[in-house]
Amino acid sequence: MVSLIGLPPRAAVRAVQATLQAAGCPDADFDARELYRLATGQDSRLSQEPLAPPQAEKLAGLALRRAAREPLQYLAGQWGFHGLELAVGPGVLCPRPDSEVVCEAALACLAGAGPAAPLVLDLCAGTGCLGLAIKAACPGARVVCVEKSPAAFAYLQQNAAAALPGYTPAHPAVECVAADIFTYHQTLAAGAASLVVSNPPYLTAAEMAQRMPETAREPALALDGGADGLDFYRLLVTQYRACLAPGGWLVLEIGCAQAAAVMALGRAAGWQNVHSQKDYGGNDRVVLLQKNEFLGHNSIET
User: Fold this and answer.
1) How far apart are CA 111 and CA 94, in angstroms?
2) What are the pLDDT digits (tens) for 67-99?
3) Is the pLDDT of residue 19 over 90?
4) Helix H segments across the chain?
């Protein structure tokens, strides 16, 4: 990589962009501008100052790490999600824009919920992006975020204490629970929750073997959904129905080719109002399932 010392902002960004493009990084132009901002604290499109040696060295270091396909989110150390800034880094899944559609679907379900202080469960919470965004929009909700990975749990706790104004480690925005969702359902009271939301691991074995270099840097625990990618959905539709109140919703992020399979699992397990929603790219991204409003009523609407 050429020396960046003394280069004006736009020239420095072009040099970084060329390095990233040569390494096969997608969105190299966006990433180069973001790396400039991280290194200098300035927007390259607004600044005129040439790079001083410390800034140039920092930018070059960041560019080489990104060229090695380290996720941009990890380099930044925090990332935006639904208006929140969340701590992120090695060991936790990066928040993605597509998941904001899951959050919006969950909030729409909550808007029709009965309790003034509904209980919301965010399973496989990772950074806590879904649960915290729901808490930000519904301050009266009691939100419990469940995460198994110790590395991811540390980010969850950090975000619970700092992502929303007015919260601290002693008084976090959401309740953080270190647990495996394959057994956590055994601790839940029947009919207590209004909403269960989850972005579970859903990559198939074939997809795990063909991950993009950036995704390969993220924890396999947050991605591997078993041979057919459906292991967690089988659990969620069968074991997390009892904890929901009648009329409560299960809202699931899915892979873009999984809508039919996940909806079939839901119908077989007795859920009603089973349907899917697309993300802003036009791909299937969310499956929603409602618990029967009347106990003993087994009809299913699709």
Assistant:
1) 27
2) 999 999 999 999 999 999 999 999 999 999 999
3) yes
4) 9-22, 28-40, 53-67, 72-76, 98-111, 129-137, 150-162, 181-184, 205-209, 213-216, 231-239, 259-268
